[in-house]
Design brief:
alpha+beta, Nuclear Transport Factor 2, Chain: A, seven-stranded mixed sheet, 7 strands, globular
């Protein structure tokens, strides 16, 4: 469901934010990437429960990644920086390609949007192309839009390489 009457300014703001996020991930600009998230942010990559459905409850079902609060996301980046993450040693090179985001809901201080993406990954363990789609919930604060929820669905259910936040 696409929202019909979305301002061009809001569409551009969402598009620029997602482009900046991809840029930060590809270039490992961790502090800039972390600044995109609100303090109560949730980062979730559910696993596939069946051929048609992903898991729906990260507290009770399997997830590829589940991080609650900005502190959880910061902890993940700390482990990547400290080289304390087996999934990220050595650190892979990535190139994200995004579709045009679609804004699906606008309320007073919140915006929901989604896009599809492909990430090319070069690793010393191999080369992969990952794909999927992401649903975002943005919250407006005085500095602009912040990511309050990032739900990433990786369409691949067979992975040949480890996957971390910067792949998705």
């Amino acid at each position: 469901m696409r929202v019909a009457d979305v301002s061009i300014a809001l569409e551009q703001e969402v598009r620029r934010l997602l482009a900046w996020e991809a840029y930060c991930l590809d270039r490992k600009l961790w502090d800039d990437w972390l600044a995109l998230f609100s303090d109560d942010a949730e980062y979730w990559a559910p696993a596939w429960a069946t051929e048609e459905e992903v898991t729906s409850d990260p507290g009770r079902e399997l997830s590829l990644i589940y991080l609650r609060g900005k502190g959880g996301i910061e902890d993940r980046i700390f482990r990547i920086r400290a080289r304390d993450s087996l999934a990220s040693v050595p650190l892979d090179r990535t190139a994200h390609v995004l579709t045009e985001p679609v804004i699906t809901k606008v309320e007073a201080h919140q915006v929901e949007a989604g896009c599809s993406w492909i990430t090319h990954v070069y690793s010393q363990r191999g080369i992969a192309t990952l794909g999927g789609y992401t649903d975002y919930l943005f919250h407006r604060d005085p500095d602009g839009l912040k990511i309050s929820r990032k739900r990433v669905v990786l369409i691949d259910d067979r992975l040949d390489l480890p996957v971390d936040v910067y792949h998705l």
